[in-house]
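Deliverable D4.2, example record:
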Amino acid sequence: MTRKTRTIAIVNQKGGVGKTTTSINLAAALASLGQSVLLIDLDPQGNATTGLGLRRGQTETTLYDVIVNETPLKDAVVNTNVPGLHLVPSDMDMSGAEINIGAAEGRTTRLKHALEFYPESPDFILIDCPPALGLLTVNALAASDSVIVPLQCEFYALEGLSQLLKTVEMAKGSINPSLVIDGVMLTMYDKRNRLSEQVAADVREHLGRAVFKTIIPRNVRIAEAPSFGKPVMLYDPNCAGSKAYMDLGREVLSRHKKPPKARTGKNTAKHV
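Output generated by the structure prediction step:
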């Protein structure tokens, strides 16, 4: 894999903040903007896998084989219904991965090494991390160029963020000196709720330009889409959630100075 690829970990140790939703829909938005994208489902819950229409047990090779058995990453990659978007699936086997590699040499860099030997060079690799700052997340931080932090617009939004930022700094100091924070993105924003407005204002006051301009609204179509195995822009391209994630995709591209490319030709991706 060449270094034209930008690898981004979607990280927050707090559950329910929109990590998997963001991983799926940002990946789909970038692909819709003409970028080639590989999404890695690092969460043992496997929600990014099912959210893209892949049934549990449908594939013989998953990320578990890559992390634990050092199977080549290319053997685990599958196509999705989104042209330009490929997936490395996960399942509940991943819940035992940390135990199985806990005493192994190079346990924090298993994913990094797998990516280094991946023969393809997508424009972006996104890593959907589990809701914990354990060994799997450390593997993601070691393998990534940067981090995006989804932050829910709720009362405890900033709680735990300082711990996460310290973990990123620790990873930068010990295993990945080039790691940076792309930004914090606000999710589940409800414009009818004064609390959402206050949280958004507080986060911007504390973090300034580190916060993405795009805000992801609380939107029922975003919540419905995973049950149909689709990103929201395939499920309902005209809803507020789709438009917000497309805006986020453009903002990520602008931060990395990658201009959108027109995607042409037939959809040759296999349906999963």
